[in-house]
């Protein structure tokens, strides 16, 4: 069966894709930037570049598909226009799918059971209505909080519980919801595939537990063997709540704001028999947490909400930034002889995250904190795997543009807030010389002043970094 999978670099799609492949389906993955898709992990899939905000690209979708999954969301988009972005994407998707042989579209939405909805849930409802007007059968699955390694909700709860022994929290922590394990979400998404019973219907999907957010935090702490106290105060406004999440956790401000607005709304499932029909055993909240940490401890986290770009910095696509500019740029270039190429490459491939940056980590952390104060991502995104890295991966406040051990080259692009653009490259040439190059293309006079203000620190940081990477300092 030919299946179209949209949002293929996103959190949910990367969990669903292996299941589709294991069951013998022919999968066409829609991505905005082909360079961000990990072909090494899924070599048998067909990758097509489609940006649903650009109608001229939807023609790349083949006509002979049987089913399409719509897993496109713009919740973490910066600015106030994510509702319009989602509407445009849905319209362009629907119009193209109507021209194909698709019999069914499967859409993952949010639980909608209150008259007063957040902008996020209103947008999801609007998208559902748009998709439902097509000449195919629409099946909508509505989920609330998704619990799994790498999910935004899981990582935010993890940050709060592990970093704050005592929390002074906003009153929306009393809001109740029905969390669902990512394993169950994937089972539902696959189970309704060409299921006539599900045609033209929507189903709320959730786990067996109905909890307040406060209970979720405390139960998370219990699973982790931590004692935590939570004081809920009524005076914290949505704006303050958003900043609270933003500074304490690794989330972006735009995502924090949209999450806070959604967390004020109860999301409880309306009863249905879909789980029984599909023979799905619902996983409890504590069990879902344990399963998530099993994956984390085994370094088997397939996807993370952090995979999404934090800004529009790379909107043109990764391949358009791989050619590092020369003209009008400031460059810090350092070279050092490599005695053990494999060892040095392994050090480069492990850079960032818990490993750190090999020299002056406190200065990198300070820079990350300053980025957070300025509305950036900071260093809290870390990395998905301790020693594997692929193009498109987040790496602290960098984005991986190219990671090739064959070429002995790692190229990073800065997603921090900067008055310009920045690249950091590590490359070992044929003479076994490691060339470490930091390139900055300033934007106006402010960019130039920025470069000269940080220039004194480069001598310490970049020199110490290359020496430690090559093993010259132990």
Low-confidence stretches: none
Q: What shape does the CA trace take?
A: globular
Structural class: alpha/beta
Q: How many distinct beta strands?
A: 19
Main sheet: strand order:
3-2-1-4-5-6-11
The percentage of residues in β strands lies in 15-25%
* Distance N to C terminus: 56 Å
Binned, the helix content reads 25-40%
Radius of gyration: 23 Å
Largest sheet: 7 strands, parallel
Summed up, the helix count is: 13
Mean pLDDT: 85
Q: Helices, strands, pairings?
A:
Blueprint: E1 2-5, H1 11-22, E2 26-31, E3 46-49, E4 67-70, H2 82-97, E5 104-110, H3 119-131, E6 137-143, E7 146-147, H4 152-163, E8 166-170, E9 176-177, E10 180-181, H5 182-191, E11 201-205, E12 211-212, H6 213-223, E13 229-233, H7 238-248, H8 253-263, H9 274-277, H10 285-297, E14 330-337, H11 341-349, H12 361-373, E15 394-395, E16 398-404, E17 409-414, E18 420-428, E19 433-442, H13 444-469
Helix pairs in contact: 1-5, 2-3, 4-6, 6-10, 7-8
Walk me through this protein's architecture:
There is one protein chain. By secondary structure, this protein is of the alpha/beta class. It has helices spanning 11-22, 82-97, 119-131, 152-163, 182-191, 213-223, 238-248, 253-263, 274-277, 285-297, 341-349, 361-373, 444-469; strands at 2-5, 26-31, 46-49, 67-70, 104-110, 137-143, 146-147, 166-170, 176-177, 180-181, 201-205, 211-212, 229-233, 330-337, 394-395, 398-404, 409-414, 420-428, 433-442. The strands form five sheets. Strands 3-2-1-4-5-6-11 form a seven-stranded parallel sheet, sandwiched between helices. It has a six-stranded antiparallel sheet with strand order 14-19-18-17-16-15, covered by helices on one side. A two-stranded parallel ribbon has the order 7-10. β18 (420-428) and β19 (433-442) form a beta hairpin. The longest helix has 26 residues, at 444-469. It is globular, with a radius of gyration of 23 Å.
